[in-house]
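Lab meeting, item 3. Inverse folding demo.
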């Protein structure tokens, strides 16, 4: 396994790969890898001649400094997991200085309003941080295709917009959400849940599935009220937001319209740990 820390070193390899006309699949991650990440990597292996995985806890996308400090960092075991998939994977695990120089500054982006909805509302500056790090990483890795999970559906839409704005040639590929048997969406943050929180967290997906089930027959307002009730009666989980939004612009709705695609989005706190999930409704 090749594990690079230095930008110049990986850029040299990438230039060689391009000279040989190799297709490069890229999977950006923040590490603490789980099967959701590995499914993205496997898809990249299947569709490209070379795969690069970045492992970088990006400081500019954290609006909460405690979350940044407590974010799990497990580089050694991440490298083992990746080498079990393929020893040919190239890992890029830079220090923040390699990406940002001396100051961790974000660029300011206008993603046509997508950045103001849901995660953007509750995590100010988050998507500027995401856009900035991906602009840097795409420049360094210069991938043919890059892989993102629908677990972060809003991020996936924003990355598609970023590539348009920055006129980058990378093709963005969305991948389905991977879950525990309990239904809980896999997330690096799940490592921080205690036993009780792990026991209760499947309520998030259970609720989303029920909403999907009832979407055809109940009003949006009734569904929103019902979800709110589910979490009011739970002492371990605290609902931050639940929204039903149009897939095209991620604007939340109060009423359904015909011939429009919708998705339900949820963010929940289990103690200090923030969990997000979403589901296609129609
Ligand atoms: P992260 O390390 O959390 O920044 O995630 C890296 C990539 O993996 C992002 O594109 C995520 O959307 C994706 N990802 C994280 N968890 C899952 C999951 N449970 N299922 C599918 N993709 C995921």
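The presenter then showed the designed sequence:
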């Amino acid at each position: 396994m090749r594990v690079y820390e230095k930008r110049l070193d990986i850029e040299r390899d990438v230039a060689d790969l391009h000279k040989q006309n190799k297709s490069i699949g890229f999977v950006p991650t923040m590490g603490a890898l789980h099967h959701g990440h590995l499914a993205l990597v496997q898809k990249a292996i299947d569709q490209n001649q070379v795969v690069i995985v970045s492992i970088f806890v990006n400081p500019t996308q954290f609006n909460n400094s405690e979350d940044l400090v407590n974010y799990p960092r497990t580089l050694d075991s991440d490298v083992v997991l990746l080498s079990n998939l393929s020893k040919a994977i190239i890992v890029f695990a830079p220090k923040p200085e390699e990406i940002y120089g001396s100051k961790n500054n974000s660029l300011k982006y206008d993603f046509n309003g997508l950045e103001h909805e849901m995660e953007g509302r509750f995590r100010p500056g988050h998507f500027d941080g995401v856009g900035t790090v991906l602009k840097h990483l795409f420049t360094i890795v210069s991938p043919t295709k890059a892989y993102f999970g629908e677990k972060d559906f809003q991020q996936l839409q924003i990355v598609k917009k970023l590539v348009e704005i920055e006129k980058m040639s990378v093709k963005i590929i969305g991948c389905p959400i991977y879950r525990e048997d309990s239904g809980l969406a896999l997330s690096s943050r799940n490592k921080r849940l205690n036993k009780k929180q792990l026991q209760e967290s499947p309520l998030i997906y259970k609720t989303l599935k029920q909403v999907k089930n009832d979407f055809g027959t109940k009003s949006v307002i009734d569904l929103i009220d019902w979800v709110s009730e589910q979490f009011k009666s739970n002492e371990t989980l605290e609902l931050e937001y639940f929204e039903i939004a149009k897939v095209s612009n991620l604007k939340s709705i109060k009423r359904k319209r015909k011939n429009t695609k919708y998705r339900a989005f949820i963010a929940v706190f289990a103690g200090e740990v923030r969990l997000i999930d979403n589901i296609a409704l129609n």
